[in-house]
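hi! just following up on the protien thing from before. the input was this:
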Amino acid sequence: MLLHVSSLNLVFHKSRHYLQALVKQNSCPASSMKLFGQPLIVRSVTMAQQVYGIRKVMIPSEFSDAIQLVQQNFPSIDVEEFCEEDYNKSNVSIKGNENLEIPLNTLIHYSKRTNALSIETIMYPWDFLATVQKILYDEVTEQVISSTASIAETSIIKGPCIIEDGVCVDDFCKIIGPAYLSKDSFIGMSSLVRNCVLGNKTKIGFNCEIGRTYFGGNSKISHQNVILDSVIGENVWFGGYSGTANVLLTRGNIKYAVGKDLVDTGTDHFGAVVGNNCAVGASVIILPGRQVPSDSFIQAGTIFGTAEKKS
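and the predicted 3d structure came back as:
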């Protein structure tokens, strides 16, 4: 949705989403989930401020973490809390040229390629993954490699990539951009990483293939894993020889369980959603469109259907 107005109050509304596995308790996607090291709500307010000169930000009072983030990052903007009971306000609207009203699970983004502003509403994990890929192609347009990163001479960096401080890429790896490797991440020997976002301190073992996947950070992926088209939360551990399948044998669209319903993702390539603080044993295959709830573990050798909660 493109907008052509100026000087607004930015009003965030509660709205339903299906990102619970990736959201911290009593939080919201806008404050829990990050892109390029910034919480989504910080990125959105930054963009809105640059384009419109936001006068005030209004956030439902129960989301204290989001309120604090805006107060800390934008001390010159007035932040107002308000009470809201309804979760059904999922549309973007402008009221009287005064208020820009958007769901909390939203990302405001400006594309240099199209010279247009868009508002991406993120209800499902595949929405988030698609938004991540879109922003990778829009914002990562050249190679920017920190002077404190260590890239082995035998490894190949192909295409636009941002590689931050303390990143280590071991021998015989290939990084294909656009990609974003956050601080203190590690790519093990002979691994392939393509079109990915790796949060801080993500560790990828040797001989892995990681494609079109988002990692929240502080995760450890052991040797010889294949993780494709997936969303991996924070503090996740994968044992060796495991992976996420991303295509059905029928080549049809992937369906994702939401309660008792199966929702069509609209894509024939989608892997897994692995929630925060999960442990996945060795030699596990997670089938397309599966969700591993936060704080779960999957026993070694499993073809994943459901997960057990950690004791």
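The domain at 144-309 is CATH 2.160.10.10 (UDP N-Acetylglucosamine Acyltransferase; domain 1).
The chain has two domains: 9-123, 144-309.
cheers
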